[in-house]
Amino acid sequence: MKYYDKLIFEVSKEGRSGFSLPVNAFPAAPALPEAVRREAPLDLPEVSEPDVVRHYTNLSQMNFGVDTGFYPLGSCTMKYNPKINEEIAALPGFAGLHPLMRKESTQGAQKVYEEMGKALSAITGMHTFTFDPCAGAHGELTGLMIMRQYHLNRGDLGRTKVIVPDSAHGTNPASAAVCGLEVVEVKSLENGRIDVEALRPLLGPDIAGMMMTNPNTLGLFETEIKTIAELVHGAGGLLYYDGANMNPLMGVVRPGDMGFDIMHLNLHKTFSTPHGGGGPGSGPVGVAEHLAGCIPSLKVSAFHGNFGVILRAYAYILSLGKDYLRQVGAYAVLSANYIKECLKDVYKLPIEGVCKHEFVFDGLLNDGAREGVPGATTLDVAKRLLDYGFHAPTIYFPLLFHQALMIEPTETESKETIDAFIAVMRKIAAEAAEDPNILHEAPHCTPISRPDETTAARNPVLKYQDTL
Amino acid sequence: MLERIGVDKLEDLYSDVPSEFLKKGPYALPDAMSEQEIRDYFASLEALNAKLNVFVGAGAYDHYTPAVIPYLCARSEFLTAYTPYQCEISQGTLRYIFEYQSLICGLTGMDVSNASMYDGPTAAAEAMKMAIACTRKKTRVLLSGTLLPNVIQVVETYARFHGVAITVLPPAEGVTSLQTLENELAADDVAGVIVPSVNRYGIVEDHSGFAEAVHERKAVLVEYCDPSALAVVKTPGEWGADIAVGDGQPLGLPLCYGGPYVGFMAVKKEHMRKMPGRIVGQTVDKEGRRVFVLTLQAREQHIKREKATSNICSNESLMALWVTIYLSLMGPEGLKEVNRISSDGAHYLKAELLKTGQFQDVFPDKPFLKEFVLKPVGCACQLQQKLEAAGFFAALPTEEGYVSFCVTEKRTRAEIDRLVKVVKEG
């Protein structure tokens, strides 16, 4: 990677252009009335096509993706994205389809939705799916709307609270708040699982339901799931499954069988569609049969969700078929446990035992702290990993530990890659023990060094015009 | 690997799962397909979709996509990265988002843009929530009845659960009425007002006096815009709006049956810290070089949890790159020319359709660009199907009993003449 300093505005040269449009074959329409006409100058870049191609190629070279190298970002399931799926999504009969065309003339698209719904039902054990949500958090919000709608339809108006574990993804409480639900937090036990005894007193006629990630954000299976489902249902609530951690269950366990009533899936995680630098994603929501009637009253996105993403995910499912699907979860879990066992003598493993697709270390066992030299932190370890050509794990989440380092390898990495990662993690631990300053100063080999984030937040410069 | 973990077989890794929950028996899925079978199968599905010449907009516009855009967006360094948490190896993503924010601010005339939202309607719903958060003890938001139907439906859905009352203002002669707006504002419970810059009938609305009326009642003005049209129509900034939202789809994004598209949101500086979504800012690294980072994160869900300004985290980053490259290629002259050709084509089509005697003009005095509605004389029930049989997607029926048409720079004069001929021949 090399540092490249330009912004497209700085490549711009007056009078240049990069567009190619047909000659206007029509008589001139009347000019817009002055009152509604733009007066402000239109300050867009003026660049040629080669300028554009070089500029964005240079920008791309300062980026790291799954295709660049190992990307063990916990909770994000950065698995390999099969390339045939890109070709499928770009087929003109899909890419050129207007969303308001009649069902009769979009039979191919209808079939994709229908078959994809059936496939996701088979994989998850849910009855009906809606594909409207455009991302995981959007799916959560839609799922919670369904939860509230269900209670409202029954005339049960007092259910205004939702239970969320303290280890949950930040989107869970945030989605609940957007949906007008009050969040009640339930604590985790020492072993990282939900405290069932702490849950009992929280359940009552004001509880709309409970949100759960299983395995949870520590990568641990919630072994008391059966009791939890019985308790929540017994209190008249619904159980919501946050599908961000679905990958280890692929081909092994179905949320619907565990008693979940509503769930979302992140097609960009579990179903291998490219993350696009932060989207587009797709967050379809599945519900049990008795909730299917709550879906039609909700309109949560422009048209039919992110069709292009759904196409890619369906191609992925068909490539796996019923047999290879069986291997997805198990291989992801195998990789995660192997890394954990190979590193737990140098990184602090707060909770022993078998994990699922990911696990969390609480920083280094020996951070090298000595007089006058603070020890190496999780941030330091993450930055040093960049020097060795790996993306960093998710850091400082979940909030249960101070130095959380959350590692998710996925099933698409070879043993050689995983062993190379382990070797580097061990090397970094050794460096920390010897001289933590090497880590404090990291990264050394990336296009830029650590940024001044305080100034960025204190004196925000958020557009090019602010810099002039 | 199993030995290192200390288990005998793969199944042992699930020993913590109650055995009743382990899936027994086969999954109800087809057998695995090879890559060639995948290609053939999707080609067979694709063939079931009609290939039509698109003469409809209604929130999704068939503008031309320059070849450079998919080519560059397919670069795997952009495509297979995620949210730029590690800025040292994400300067590519962070820089294009900064450029995107700058371009959106330039188009809308606003101060601060976020890194993108899901789509136009959800961006409008976020603006509705923001209006509530920016004002005190106000619980109602006004929506112009001239907004696209899907914008109204999405905002109403969000509002219903967020505890916000929505009033839809009935249009007067195809546009938002200042008089009706002032009457509703008089109740003093209004947090915000959302109005379209180009509306569901294709009319370019005149919002003179709107900002003054809204601000007098300490409410927030939100302009819903077509960003392509902002090259020629008055900007939210010029109207005095507080928030600008819309869908970036008209900026060269493929129709793709409705998504992925990209919502945008830009606001006045004083509302910056109430804005949802990711924001990229400029700063320096230890060597003093200009670098870019995710900033103002204290607004976001991973820090504030239930007190966050929104639940959004993943957005439509790759589509923001798409829009950024589109705007760079088009430049000021290209984007104006897109508007000119589309508008000239639409005026030509409208005139030709009126000549057939089969339509009445509904809003003859109102200015429009690429989109317009007509009222069919007599029964128009079979018109859309008839045009479809001739290879056109056109004459989309509206709730009001009109039919809607749209012309982009992709439509040729020959295509338009052929469409009119089909109409004429009945």
Question: What is the compact description of this entry?
Answer:
The complex is a heterodimer of chains A (468) and B (426). With 468 residues, chain A is of the alpha/beta class.
Please, could you describe this protein's structure?
The complex is a heterodimer of chains A (468) and B (426). By secondary structure, chain A is of the alpha/beta class. Chain A folds into 2 domains: 84-320, Type I PLP-dependent aspartate aminotransferase-like (Major domain) (Aspartate Aminotransferase, domain 2, 3-Layer(aba) Sandwich); 327-454, Alpha-Beta Complex (Aspartate Aminotransferase, domain 1). Chain A is 35% helix and 9% strand. Chain A contains 15 helices and 10 strands. Chain A has helices at residues 8-11, 49-60, 84-89, 92-95, 107-124, 136-153, 171-178, 196-199, 225-234, 307-343, 378-387, 415-434, 436-440, 453-458, 464-467, and strands at 128-130, 161-165, 182-186, 207-212, 238-243, 262-265, 285-287, 359-362, 394-395, 404-407. In chain A, the strands form 2 sheets. In chain A, strands 1-7-6-5-4-2-3 form a 7-stranded mixed beta sheet, sandwiched between helices. In chain A, strand 9 and strand 10 form a beta hairpin. In chain A, helix 5 (107-124) runs parallel beside helix 10 (307-343). Chain A starts with 7 loop residues before the first helix and ends with a helix. With 426 residues, chain B is α/β, with parallel strands linked by helices. Chain B has a domain at 68-324: Aspartate Aminotransferase, domain 2 (3-Layer(aba) Sandwich). Chain B is built from 14 helices and 15 strands. In chain B, the strands form 4 sheets. Chain B has a 7-stranded mixed beta sheet with strand order 2-8-7-6-5-3-4, sandwiched between helices. Chain B has a 4-stranded antiparallel beta sheet with strand order 11-12-15-14, with helices on one face. Chain B has a two-stranded parallel ribbon with strand order 1-13. Chains A and B meet through helix 2, helix 3, helix 4, helix 5 and helix 6 of A and helix 1, helix 2, helix 3, helix 4 and helix 5 of B.
